[in-house]
Specification:
eight-stranded antiparallel sheet; seven-stranded antiparallel sheet; single chain; 3 helices; Jelly Rolls; metal-binding; GPI/OXD; Cupin type-2 domain-containing protein
Length: 266
C-alpha cells in the first residue's frame, strides 16, 4: 500500500497514480480513485481510506447506504452534494457525514464566478477532489465476523439521532460524529503546526489517519523518517507510533481517529 519508504509500522501513500474507473455508482463518466489504506491494514472496522476526484461536469452517482457509514471531505473544487433529494453546496473544507439509510451523491459544478479558492488538493484545475472514509456499521461488522448481530445497545441508540450532517471543517476545526455514526469514527479535525512543532500519535487504543493539506514536514517512527508534502497520507495501524513535525512554513493536516474493537485484532 505504501507509495514511499515508510517508517516501521506506518502506512504512507499519496494521491498520485489514481485508477480510472467508469460508471461509479451507476453514473456515466470517469472517476479517478485510489485507496490510501484499507481493512487489510487496520484493526478498526474500516472498509477503506480513499481519495477520489471527478473532472468538470462529472458525477459520483446517488446511492443509499444500507450497511456502511461514510465521510466525504472536499479537498479541491466546487460542486453539489445530493443528499436525500436535497442539494447542498460542496467546497474545500466541506465535510459530509453519511449515516445508515442516507442517499447521497456528488456532482462537479465548477467554481462560482469570481471564486479562485485553490483548496487543499493537487488535482488538475477544475477537478473536484475529496477524501473518503467508509466504515461498516456495528451490525454489519458482526455479520462479517460470523457473529449474530445484537439488538442496538443503549450506547449506540444514544449516539445515533440523525442520518446525515454537513459541516465546514475549515471553520469548525473539529467534529464529533456521534449522533450520525455508530461505528468506529471518533473524531475528525484539521490541525495546524508551526515551523518545527510536532504532534505525536499513538495507536495503542485507537488508530489514526492523517492527510497533509498544506505545507511540508516529516513523519518519524523510531529511527526512520519520511518526507511529507501536500497530498501525503500517513496511517497508523494498531500498535504503531509516529510524530508529525512541520517544516519551514508550517504544516496543516486532516486527522481522523478510529476506535479499535474491544474484542481485539481481527
Amino acid at each position: 500500500m505504501s507509495d514511499a519508504s515508510a517508517p516501521a509500522g506506518v502506512l504512507v501513500a499519496d494521491t498520485r497514480d489514481a485508477s480510472e474507473i467508469y460508471g461509479v455508482h451507476g453514473a456515466p463518466g470517469l472517476t479517478y480513485w485510489k485507496a490510501l489504506a484499507s481493512r487489510q491494514h487496520l484493526e478498526a472496522e474500516v472498509e477503506a481510506v480513499e481519495v477520489a476526484r471527478i473532472p468538470p461536469g462529472g458525477l459520483s452517482g446517488e446511492h443509499r447506504h444500507t450497511r456502511t457509514e461514510e465521510i466525504y471531505f472536499i479537498l479541491r473544487g466546487h460542486g453539489e452534494f445530493l443528499v436525500n433529494g436535497e442539494v447542498r453546496p460542496a467546497r474545500p473544507g466541506s465535510l459530509l457525514l453519511t449515516g445508515i439509510g442516507t442517499v447521497h451523491g456528488l456532482r462537479n459544478t465548477g467554481a462560482p464566478a469570481g471564486v479562485t479558492d485553490p483548496g487543499y488538493g493537487s488535482a488538475p484545475e477544475g477537478h473536484l477532489e475529496w477524501l473518503v472514509i467508509e466504515m461498516p456499521a456495528p451490525a454489519t461488522s458482526e455479520v462479517l465476523h460470523g457473529l449474530a448481530p445484537d439488538a442496538p445497545t443503549a450506547e449506540l441508540t444514544e449516539r445515533k439521532t440523525e442520518t446525515m450532517r454537513l459541516h465546514d471543517l475549515r471553520e469548525e476545526k473539529a467534529v464529533d460524529p456521534a449522533g450520525v455514526f455508530t461505528g468506529p469514527l471518533r473524531l475528525v479535525e484539521i490541525r495546524e503546526l508551526a515551523d518545527g512543532d510536532g504532534a505525536a500519535f499513538s495507536a495503542h487504543t485507537s488508530e489514526h489517519t492523517v492527510f497533509v493539506l498544506t505545507g511540508s514536514g516529516t513523519a518519524t517512527a523510531g529511527d526512520t523518517a519520511v518526507e511529507l508534502t501536500a497530498g501525503t497520507a500517513v496511517t497508523l495501524p494498531f500498535g504503531a507510533e509516529a510524530v508529525i513535525t512541520a517544516g519551514a512554513g508550517g504544516l496543516e493536516f486532516f486527522h481522523a481517529e478510529l476506535a479499535v474493537p474491544e474484542r481485539g485484532p481481527r
